[in-house]
Amino acid sequence: MSEDIRTSIGLRPVINVSGTMTSLGASIVVPEAIAAMSSILPQFVEINDLQRKASAVIARLTGGEAGFVTASCSAGISLAVAGAITGNNLLAIEKLPDVVPEKNEVLVQMGHVVSYGAPVDQAIRLAGGKVVLVGQATSTHRFHMEHAITEKTAAAVYVVSHHVVDYGLLNLKEFVEIAHARGVPVIVDAASEYDLKIFLEQGADVVLYSGHKFLGGPTSGIVAGKKELVRNAFLQNMGVGRGMKVGKESIFGVMAALEAWERRDHAGIRERETSYLNLWKQTLDGRPGVTALIEPDPTNNPLDRMRVIIDTEEAHITAWDLADALGGGSPPIIVRDHEVEHRYFYLDPCNLHPGQEKIVASRLAEELDKARASNEIIATPIENRSKRRFEGVLKWPD
Ligand SMILES: *Cc1c(COP(=O)(O)O)cnc(C)c1O
Question: Which residues cross the membrane (predicted)?
C-alpha cells in the first residue's frame, strides 16, 4: 500500500466530517475531473475558446444562456458585480476599482452579509461596488428594498447559504420582482447549492457556484446566466479578474465535473451517506449526555447531517472539548463546529472515503468513553477556542 501523500510531506491525515471547507481542501475531486486536468495540462490551448466550450456545458447544466469558469465563487461575486458596473466599457474595466460612471451601488439584505471565510461585502467592494445594506439583520420588507433602489443602483446580490439569517428576509422571488421592476439585475451567490437550475428559474440574472463544493471539481467558481451580463463579467479578466484567473486545467476540470454531475448516481450517494449517519446514530444512542439527531440541510440540499448534542454534566465533556479531542486525535477528525457554543456540533457525511465512517464512529465512542470515565468534567472556556485560532494564524508560518 502506498503511503498517504499527506503523511509523506508531514501533514496530518485529517478525516473531514465538517463539510466542504476551503480550509480543509474543499472536496474529493471526482476521477473524471482529475483525468481531464492531467490530459490538458501538457497542451497549449486558446483560453477564450476553451471558455467558449465551458460556456456551452455550463449553459446546458444551469439553463443559463452562457457561463465561464473563474478562480472561486468569491471571485465570481466580484466579477459579476464589476460587470454590472462597467458593462462592456473596456476603459472602465481597466479603471476599476475606481468607478467612473458612479453607478456602483449594490444592494444586499443585511441578513445576507455573512462570512464564508471572508466577508460577502468585501467581494463586492473589491469590484468597485458600494454596498447598500437593505433592512435589518432579521427583517427585510419590500419597502426597505424599494426605497434602496436609486439611479445609481448597479445590481442586487442575494446569498443562499446556511450562514444567512433564515427568517424575516425577502425570498429570492420577491427580491427579483422588486429589482426587475426597476431594471436592476440580480446576482445570486449559490456557492454551496446542489440545484444548478433553480435560481435562474426563479428569475436571477446571474448565478454563482463553487466548482469545488458539491460538484467535486477543482478549486474554481462558475458564473452562469444572461449572456450579456456573463460576458461583461468575463471581460473583467482584462481587469480586476486577472488576479482571479484560472488555467486550462481548472476550466477543463470543471467541464468534466459538470458532465460527471449529469451522470452521477445521486440516489446511490444519498444511500451511502444515510448508512454512515445510521452507523453514527447507533454508536451514540443510549450514551449518557449525548443526543444524536439526523437533520436535513437548512437550504434544502439533498443531504442530511447528524447533530450531536452534548450535555456537559452527563457526558463529562463539553461539545467543543469533544470536537477538539477528535481534531487532535489520531487520525484527526474535523467536525462541523460553527455553532458549538450552543453545545452541539454536526457530522457531515458527504466528504468521506468509504471506510472512514467506521473510524469516525470508533473515535467518537473512544473519546466519549474516556470522558465518562474521567472524574473531572472536561470544560475549557469557549472563548479560548477562537483566541487560539487567531493566535495560531497570526504566527503563520511560525
Ligand atoms: C463557500 C461559499 C462561498 C465562497 O466560495 P469559494 O468558491 O470558496 O470562493 C461564497 N458564498 C457562500 C454562500 C459559500 O458557501
Answer: none
